[in-house]
Amino acid sequence: MTILVWVSAAEQSRKRGMPLYDVSHDTALVRLRPILMTALVASLGFLPMALSTSDGAEMQRPLATVVIGGLITSTLLTSLVVPTIYPWFARGVHDVVLTHHGEPEPTIG
User: Fold this and answer.
1) What CA–CA distance (Å, rounded) separates 109 from 95?
2) What is the pLDDT of residues 51-76, one digit of tens each?
3) What is the mean pLDDT of residues 81-105?
4) pLDDT(108) > 80
5) Are residues 90 and 72 in contact, defined by beta-carbon separation less than 8 angstroms?
6) Which uninterrupted H or E stretch holds 75?
7) Of 3, 37, 86, 104, which is most buried by a Cβ count within 10 Å?
8) Which one, of 13, 38, 43, 35, lies nearest residue 26 by Cα?
9) Which helix (H) or strand (E) holds 22?
10) Is residue 29 part of a domain?
11) What would the DSSP string read from start to end of 85-107?
C-alpha cells in the first residue's frame, strides 16, 4: 500500500515536469515522515501482543512478531529500495508508452 502511495506521488511530480532523478529524491524526502509514522504506530500497536505472557500468548507472540517484522521490512523497502529503483522502472515504462504511440523515444542527458 505504501509503495502505491509513493509511486502515485512520484508520478504526480513527473506530470509537473520535474526531472526523473529529482522526482525520486524529492518524493523520498516528502514521503519519509508519513511512511515512518505509519509503521511506527502500527508496530507500537502490536508491541503489547508481542510481549504478552498471558493465556493464549503462545499464539499471539509469533503473529505479532511476524507483523512487526513485515512492517519494518516494508518500511525499509519503501524508504530505500523503491526510490533507488524507481528511475530505472519509470524510464522503461515511459519508453514503452512513447514507442507504443509512435512518438520518438526521449533522449537521456
Assistant:
1) 15
2) 998 888 888 999 999 999 999 999 99
3) 68
4) no
5) no
6) helix 57-76
7) 86
8) 13
9) helix 20-50
10) no
11) HHHHHHHHHHHHHHHHTTPPPPP
